[in-house]
Amino acid sequence: MTTPVSSIVLVLVGSVIGSVGAIFLKSGAHAVNRQWSSIVFNWRLMVGVATYLLSSVLYVKGMANGELSVLFPLVSLGYVCTLVWSKMFFNEVITKVKLAGVGLILVGITFLSLGSH
Q1: Is 55:14 a contact under the CB 8 Å cutoff?
Q2: Is the model's pTM score more than 0.90?
């Protein structure tokens, strides 16, 4: 079985959308207190949950026609995006160790994709 480009694109887009969802969840978490209403009526949390749901739908659609061993590692690209978003939106520090981790993720994805040929 070969993995169509459309499946790869669906999983990649889902991965980026999922990383955006993490940003909304983090942003919404700042407003959470001991009252349930701070969770239930928190629009940022709701957007975060909705984006995770959308990313899951895209994963399922993408995985339906491709190799799991090729597609699922692409989900880890969300970690790369999340590192960038965390710097942009929360001014988090990007250390050499974090960059090395992202580099290892990219190398791993490359090796896994080469293994399918």
Answers
A1: yes
A2: no
